[in-house]
Amino acid sequence: MDPFQLQQIITAAGVLLIAASVAGAAVAVGGQVRRRGLRRARLRNAPTPAQALSRHGRDRQLGRRLTAGIERLGQKSAVQDPAKLSVVRMKLMRAGFFNREAVGIYLGAKAAAMLAATAGTVLLLPMMLGGKGGMGPTALALTLSGVALLGPDQVLNGRRRMREQEYTDGFPDLLDLLVASVEAGLSLDAAVSRVTDELARRYPNLVIHLRFLTLELRAGRGRKDAWLGFADRLGIDDARALATMLRQAEDMGTSLGETLSVFSADMRVKRMMRAEERALALPAKLTVPLILFIFPCLLGVLLLPAAARLMDVLGK
Fold first, then answer.
1. How far is CA 296 from the centre of its chain?
2. 63, 107, 137, 210: which could join 196 in a potential S-S bond, CB 3.0 to 4.6 Å?
């Protein structure tokens, strides 16, 4: 191979390595900028829970025909066992679906996905039996079956994880505001109503559950049952611990302000420990980007001048 061609190949490889490094850095910076912009927009123009629910109602009215058909299909395949039905309803509530028709729509969506996967598999069956397309039709049929079986549950789990992350982040702030309100002289029910108004813009999904809690307390439901239902809807350990603590404080007659103060301090310690855990896990997570983007660029910068110099010497 001619030295000039080899030099061109090395130069092109160096350019590609640098371009890959720049692209990786641009993607990382762009992701950070986009997340910060979304966070600022959310804090600036976050809708209230009532607006979110009304917007959800308008969207549901626009797709009423489609959802009605899916709901009818779901009613035909509905779970007859009340215990299983309550489990499905609780799963949907943790994912952010609070409508009474949510169970029927969810079951109908699963049934529709299974019907679509079955129809697709039947259409692909002649190609699989005839050997046309190799393994492509078989892989497509398996993909359709996997999406139909796991798709709805994965969507629910993804929404649930996102909301549980918001609940976990907002719970220490909720406790701090509850402690400040109770120590200022408000009752626990009035403190919950006050805290709901304060957290409406920062944690809108958490506020929806707080409003449900406030409505249950105003409707006359017992405080123990209301807080236990609140913890079950959130589905996080901190909420269950708070409900248990409030029940024990009410049974034993201890000071609610002091109990909340101790629990709030413990929550702040847990938040600090979670932050330290994430910070300690950061070097391990940075290993792959370093290997893929920074190390090739550094290797190219160090070796390309020596390679070019060696080619020049050998060419002479």
1. 33
2. 210
